[in-house]
Amino acid sequence: MFKSTVQALLTGEIICATAHPDLFEFLDINDNNVRVADFLSNLDRNLTYLDSADAYYSTFRTVDETNRSELTLLFNDVRSNFRPLVEFLELLLTATQTDLPLRGKSNLNINALFDPFEHDHTLREQLRYLTSIKPFKTNKLESRDQLVFVFHKLEEMQYLVRKNTGSSHYYATARFDIIYLLIEFLNDSELVDMPITDEQEQEELVF
Q1: d(Cα 124, Cα 191) in Å, to the nearest integer?
Q2: Beta strands, E only, the chain
Q3: Are 201 and 185 in contact (CB under 8 A)?
Q4: What pLDDT is stored for residue 207 in this prediction?
């Protein structure tokens, strides 16, 4: 389990109870947590715990020429999907008529979302826009099919998981909490459209 946990962290996985329950339980044991943290420190990494999401991930301890290009690629990857994900979250809040954001362990029943989209032209238009941009781009025309495609894509991207294949119930992972952390960071820094800076690269948003 130690090897699997370290490999997952080094490849950018966010370990939470939803996405990786076995690895999460392993890290939640203090002795295992210390072992993994010590190992990562030898690779200039930290084992970071995000309290608001109850999740673990790996961050670089320093930024220098040996990892700057890797950090830039990782941050650009997050940024490339950032706006579409925010569009999805806003669309979901409107469709469910709730003020509660989607966070790790949140439960979504896709069947309960079909009706709002079928009866609300504005929602359908917003969904049509969402499915016209990557990573949710599709040629599907019906709102039901578009919504299914978006959920399947989020499952592929590990933002959602299903306990059983074919189930209509999806569970959010801590990756959504990272998006909120990124939103807070961008709002605080007022650098939404700015190029990456050294300070941004050092944020623990990059894993």
Answers
A1: 31
A2: 15-16, 45-50, 55-60, 107-109, 160-161, 169-172
A3: no
A4: 37
The rounded distance, in Å, linking the Cα atoms of 150 and 87 is 12
Strand order in the sheet with 107-109: 107-109, 169-172, 160-161
Q: What is the mean pLDDT of each run of 10 residues along the chain (207 residues)?
A: 96 92 96 97 92 88 66 67 90 89 90 93 96 95 96 95 91 89 67 40 39
Please tell me what DSSP assigns to residue 42.
Answer: T
CB neighbour list of residue 124: distance below 8 Å, 6 or more residues apart? 117, 118, 143
Instruction: Name the DSSP class of 173.
Output: -
CATH 1.10.10 applies to domain 79-179: yes
Angle between helices 175-189 and 68-96 (to 10 degrees): 100
Residue 21 phi/psi, 5-degree rounding, is: -60, -40
Q: Does this model's pTM top 0.85?
A: no
Whose CA is closest to 60, among 175, 202, 182? 202
| Pairwise CA distance, residues 207 & 15, whole Å | 12
